[in-house]
Each structure stands twice: as structure tokens, then as C-alpha cells.
Amino acid sequence: MLQNIEVIELLKGIPFEQILRDLFLYSTKEPWFFTEYSFLLVFGVFVFFYALLFDWNIIRKLYLVAFSLIFYYKSSGPFLALFLIQVTCDYVFAQWIQKSEGVSKKLLATISILFSLSFLLYFKYANFFIENTNLLLLTHFEFVDLFLPIGISFYTFQSISYLVDVYRGQINASSNFLDYAFYMTFFPHLVAGPIVRASDFLGQVNHPERPNSYVFKESFVRILLGLIKKLFIADYLAKYVDMVFENPGFYSGAENLIGVFAYTFQIYFDFSGYSDIAIGLALLVGYRLKENFDNPYNSRNITVFWRKWHISLSSWLRDYVYIPLGGNRKGEFNTYLFLLTTMLIGGFWHGASWKFVFWGAAHGLALGFHKLIKDKIPDHWLLSALGWLATFLFVSFCWIFFRAADFPAALDIIQRIAYHTIWQDFVGFGYSRFEISILLLAVFVIVLIPQSIKKWCIERLYYVPSFFWIFFLLIALQVIIQFKDEVVQPFIYFQF
Question: Which of 350, 363, 370, 420 is the catalytic position?
Fold first, then answer.
């Protein structure tokens, strides 16, 4: 009896209410993302019950949609309501578009796309337009106090692709609201991609891949690789990158140049790490997402780079901007113009700032230049090697404008590199920041390894006994808990 009383008193001392509040209520200070141990804890419980409900199709879908909505609420709070409004309206619009013909169909498609874009334009670009209007017209419009809903750029492009595909007759509008909600809210890709096409995903909604030991290992390998990329590479590089980009004048030209290369690798391992985790989590519940990266820094030219970098976005821009504009069907000049326009839109999609527009313009001009000269370049290994080097350096240069706070900061970094680089400083850097030097060298080698070799090595991991994966999982969770307060940062693409 005494022992029972002691247990009761012990339970009374546990703040269950506070624990539940922390787990399920939105906090601006601790939004959910995949490396949050609280998310992994809740997800583990979710997967257990998901497995029990797997054969109950409607209940399984409702259960996963509910978890996805909780995930988005924990990531973006009250903006969940805005997201649900857009999902509902897109579903209704698609039904109307499919039933319409001629001018009415075109008008409905236009209205639906503009409606979908309106949320993105307001929350992401309102202050940008106000700022530039004030500069051009000498007006004094006040800025709007806005918080950017997480994932709005991704799910807006996703909804537009669905509406356009229905309009084109490439897919049928979903007749089941639950299926469409499942597609739009599916948590692995919801806040930072990949941008999933309805044509690739809706057919899977009612036919998930049944979990087995091989799928479990495949998904866990992807999740573990993503966590390694994020926690041990991207976040570690971020510490040095943040120092340099916050105060470039304090560092030498060599240190600024190394900072640029460090960010080049940071953004790749951060974003590809997120994509790996997203693909792995989706696999764990029976769904396959397309690859979003294909060893992009091993590209021999800028065109190949954009076939391998953020594939879901680059292919979206190709299919819904470049080709509809005319692609390469309306003459040489227009082809270059369409390329530039497409990349300008791609740059502006990333952020409401002229630095992103410049970044997009630079890539658009580079793509046009390569298109102009590609047939004149002989097929030779030396030229391919030089092409790879030029592509890597160009992409790294453009990342300066992507990461810098503004244009003056970007130009300051370029000036420091151009006029204050002493090659002896690289030797000093190797001694003073040995860990960063070794890590940069290691990741440089990693990105040069052909994708086929990486894939072969990863597939060998699928045959490791299951009990090893449980052991690795416990270690990964412990690492996340230990690193959380110091180095774990939100994924870079959350800001877009």
C-alpha cells in the first residue's frame, strides 16, 4: 500500500500537462522540424499506430492527414487555417475547371491560379513591393507586419501544378477531397519540398507500399544519411559561415573565400539532407517521393547542374514557365529570353529581395551562354574538367548573393576576396581551423564521387542486420538531444 502511495505521489510530480502542451501546442521559439527530438518522439508513436491501421484505408488516410496537420500547426501555428483554406479552394476550383469548356475553362483556371498565388504574393512579397514603390514614387506607404508561413512557396507551386495539369487534361481532378487533402498535407514534403506533382502522388494515396524489413532499412538509411548531412556537416559548417558572412571585413580574403566554399557545401548538405529525411519518412509510411538532388556539384556545365540541383523546382520551372512561354520553339532570341525569364522567376521565388533576382538572372545568363556555345565545344576530358571547375566556381560565386544579408555585404565579400587574398593565409587557416579544413576537404571529395558509386554503397547498407539499425537509431536520437541546444538549426529552405 505504501509503495502504491509513493508511485501516485511520484506521478503527481510529473508535469504531464506541460509535457503535452509542449508536444502539441505551437511555439514560436521551438517550431517543429525533422531534427527536433520531440518530433521524432511523437513520430515514433505515430508510426506504431499507423502500422496497426495500415489495412484500414480510410482510417489510415484520416490518421495520416491528422498527423500532417498537427505537424504543420507545430511548424507554422495559426497559418494552418490559411493553408486549409487554400487546399479547400483548390479542390473546388479543380472540379469546376474539369467540368468547364472553352473560355469559361480558361477563365476559371486563371482565377484559381491567381487565387493560389495571392497568398504567396501577400505574405512573401507585399513589403518588397511597398519598399520599391516608396523608392520609385517617393511615397510613404507603411510596411505590413507579416510573418511568412513556413512552406508557402512549396505548397503554392504544388497547388498550381495540380490546377494546371487538370486544365491541360493531363490528370483528372480528384473526386475525393480526402485524397486531395492527403496529397497536399503529406507532412514529409509539406514545409520544404520536394515539390510533389499530383500526377506522381495521387495514384499512391490508396495504394501505399506495405512495410517490410527491406523498406524499413531503405527508409532508415535515408533518414540517417539526412541527419548526418544536417547535424555533422551542414550545421558544423554553419558556425564558420555565419561568422564570415556577418562580418566579412574582419576576415582575410582567404578566410572569406573559404567561407564562400563552406556555404556552397553547407546549403547542399542542408537541403539534400532535408530531402533525404523527407524521402525516408515518406518511405516509412509507404509512399515514394522523387529524388531532389543528383550529385549536382559533379556537373560539367551549368545546364547539367540545373538538372541535378533541386530537381523538383527546376523541372517545375521548366514545365510550368519555360515551356509554356515558348521554350525553344519561337526562335533563338526568344529561347534565351525565356531562359532568363524563367530563372528570374526562380530567383524571385526564393526570396523578396533584389539579391535573389540577381542570383536568378546570373544563372539565366549562364544557361543562355552555355546553350550558345555547347555545340562548339569538343568532347575532350580536359575540357570537361575545366567545364566542371568553371561551373563549380560560378555556382559558388552566385551563392554569395544568396547568403549575404544584402548587396553591399555581398560586394564586400567579393572585394575582400579580390584584393585581400594572400595565398599564405590558406596555410595559416589550415593550422588555426584544422577541423573545418579537414571537413571541407572531406566533403569536397564526397561530392566528386560519382553518384553510381554512392548509390551502390548505400544499397549495401540495406543488408545490414536489423538489430544494428535499432542501435544506430538510439545513437542518432542521443546525438540530436545532445546537439539540440547548441548547433541544430532550422533547415535553410524553411525561410523560402
Answer: 350
Angle at 432 between CA 393 and CA 253, to 5 degrees: 40
CA distance 138 to 448: 51
Model confidence pLDDT, tens digit, residues 77-108: 888 999 999 999 999 999 999 999 989 999 99
Contact 220, 211 (CB under 8 A): no
Q: And the C-alpha cell for 342?
A: 524563367
DSSP 233: I
Helix axes 434-448, 253-284, angle to 10 degrees: 60
* Three cell numbers written together for 334: 526568344
The C-alpha atoms of residue 281 and residue 240 are separated, in whole angstroms, by 30
Give the count of beta carbons closer than 10 Å to the beta carbon of residue 140. 7
Write the DSSP symbol of residue 495: G
| pLDDT value at 14 more than 60 | no
Sequence-ordered list of residues with C-beta below 8 angstroms from that of 28, at least 6 positions apart, any chain: 77
Per-residue model confidence (pLDDT) at position 234:
92
184-240: pLDDT as tens digits = 999 999 888 799 999 999 999 999 998 787 888 888 888 888 988 988 899 889 999
Angle, helices 152-168/177-185, rounded to nearest 10 degrees: 140
Which of 44-58, 260-274, 419-433 bottoms out in mean pLDDT, i.e. has the lowest?
Answer: 419-433
Residue 301 and residue 372 in contact, taking contact as beta carbons nearer than 8 Å: no
Cβ neighbours for 172, distance < 8 A, ≥ 6 positions apart: 98, 166
Domain residue ranges in the chain = 55-204, 213-495
Total residue length of the chain: 496
pTM over 0.85: yes
Residue 173 exposed, middle or buried by CB count within 10 Å (0-12, 13-18, 19+): buried
Cα–Cα nearest to 446, from 278, 265, 274, 200: 265
Per the annotation, the verdict on 189 as an active-site residue is no
User: What separation in angstroms does the CA of 388 have from each of 151, 394, 396?
Assistant: 33, 10, 12
